C-alpha cells in the first residue's frame, strides 16, 4: 500500500538507534525526507549515511544535540522547510525507588518525557493545520498502560504527556484540519537499551545473559521481542494519509504482554 507520504518532511527524535531509527527507516521507505536528531553525532551521521545510501532521492539532515534544549529544538525545526510529521522520542529516566529521587530527578524526567514533546508539538501543529496535513506520533511506553513499580519517573512523566495529548488531539481546529496526534506504546523490543537492562539483570542474578533473555521472552505471549523494523512500520502507518480518522489513541505494541481488555 502506498501510504501517501512521498515528499513529506519528518522530524524524528532520538533516531540514531533503536525504535527511533526504525521509525526513520520506515518513513524513508515511503519517500519521506528526514531531519534526524540524537545526542551522539557519530551514530547520528552513520544512520544518516545509511539512509542516504538506501534512498538516494531523499533529503536526510542531521541535528545533533539534546532535544530538550531550546537551541537544539530550534535548529531541528529550522532544518526542514516544514514539518509534516513529528515523531517524539526520548530514552526513559532510570529505574529506582521514589524515596531516593529529589526534585531535580522529577524535573529532568518531566523535561525529557513530557515538556519537550509538548514544546515540539506546539511548534508544529498550527503550521500543519494551515497546510491541511499533520501527523504527530509520541513514542511513550507500555508502562503507561501497566505501570512498573521501579519506573516511577517514567510512569509519571509519560502519563502526564498521555493526558495532555488526549485533550489536544480532540481539538476540532486540529482534528478537523487533518492533524492527528497519537501515542505509540512499546513493550519489550530488541534494542540496545533492552540489552543493557538484561545484562544488568544477569549480573545481579548470577545467570547467563542468554538465560535471562529466554526467560523474559517466554513471559511474552508472542514468545519473542519486537523488532525496530516492525515498530517503525506501525509508526509509518499512523503517519499515513489513510490514518486521518485515527487520533488521540494509545497504540500498544507488546506482543500481547498486557493482560487487560482495555
Short description:
The chain is built from nine helices and seven strands; from the N terminus they run βαβαβαβαβααβαααβ. By secondary structure, it is α/β, with parallel strands linked by helices.
Describe the structure in your own words:
Strands 3-2-1-4-5-6-7 form a 7-stranded parallel β-sheet, sandwiched between helices. It has helices spanning 18-29, 41-54, 70-78, 103-131, 152-168, 172-175, 192-205, 209-218, 228-239; strands at residues 9-12, 33-38, 60-64, 85-88, 134-139, 179-186, 250-253. Helix 1 packs across helix 9. Strand 2 (33-38), helix 2 (41-54) and strand 3 (60-64) form a beta-alpha-beta unit. The protein has 262 residues and is of the alpha/beta class. The longest helix is centred in the middle third of the chain and has 29 residues, at 103-131. The two termini are 29 Å apart. It has 9 helices and 7 strands, in the order βαβαβαβαβααβαααβ.
- Global morphology: globular
Strand order of the largest sheet: 3-2-1-4-5-6-7
User: Low-confidence parts, pLDDT < 50 over ≥5 residues?
Assistant: none
Helix fraction? 40-55%
Query: H/E series, N to C?
Result: EHEHEHEHEHHEHHHE
Kindly name the structural category: alpha/beta
Radius of gyration: 18 Å
Distance between the termini: 29 Å
Average of pLDDT: 95
Give the biggest sheet. 7 strands, parallel
Percent strand: 5-15%
Amino acid at each position: 500500500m502506498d501510504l501517501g507520504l512521498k515528499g513529506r518532511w519528518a522530524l524524528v527524535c532520538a533516531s540514531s538507534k533503536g525504535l527511533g531509527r526504525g521509525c526513520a527507516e520506515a518513513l524513508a521507505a515511503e519517500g519521506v525526507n528526514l531531519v534526524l536528531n540524537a545526542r551522539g553525532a557519530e551514530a547520528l551521521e552513520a544512520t544518516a549515511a545509511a539512509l542516504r545510501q538506501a534512498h538516494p532521492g531523499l533529503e536526510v539532515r542531521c541535528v545533533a544535540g539534546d532535544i530538550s534544549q531550546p537551541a537544539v529544538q530550534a535548529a531541528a525545526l529550522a532544518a526542514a522547510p516544514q514539518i509534516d510529521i513529528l515523531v517524539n522520542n526520548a530514552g526513559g529516566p532510570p529505574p529506582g525507588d521514589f524515596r531516593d529521587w529529589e526534585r531535580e530527578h522529577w524535573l529532568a524526567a518531566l523535561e525529557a518525557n513530557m515538556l519537550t514533546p509538548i514544546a515540539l508539538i506546539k511548534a508544529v501543529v498550527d503550521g500543519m493545520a494551515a497546510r491541511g496535513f499533520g501527523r504527530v506520533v509520541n513514542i511513550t511506553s507500555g508502562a503507561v498502560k501497566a505501570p512498573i513499580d521501579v519506573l516511577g519517573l517514567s510512569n509519571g512523566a509519560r502519563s502526564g504527556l498521555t493526558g495532555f495529548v488526549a485533550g489536544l488531539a480532540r481539538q476540532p481546529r486540529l482534528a478537523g484540519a487533518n492533524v492527528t496526534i497519537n501515542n505509540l506504546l512499546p513493550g519489550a523490543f530488541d534494542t540496545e537499551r533492552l540489552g543493557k537492562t538484561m545484562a544488568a539483570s544477569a549480573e545481579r542474578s548470577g545467570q547467563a545473559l542468554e538465560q535471562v533473555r529466554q526467560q523474559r521472552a517466554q513471559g511474552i505471549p508472542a514468545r519473542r521481542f519486537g523488532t525496530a523494523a516492525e515498530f517503525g512500520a506501525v509508526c509509518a502507518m499512523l503517519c499515513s494519509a489513510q490514518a486521518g480518522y485515527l487520533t488521540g489513541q494509545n497504540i500498544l505494541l507488546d506482543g500481547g504482554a498486557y493482560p487487560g481488555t482495555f
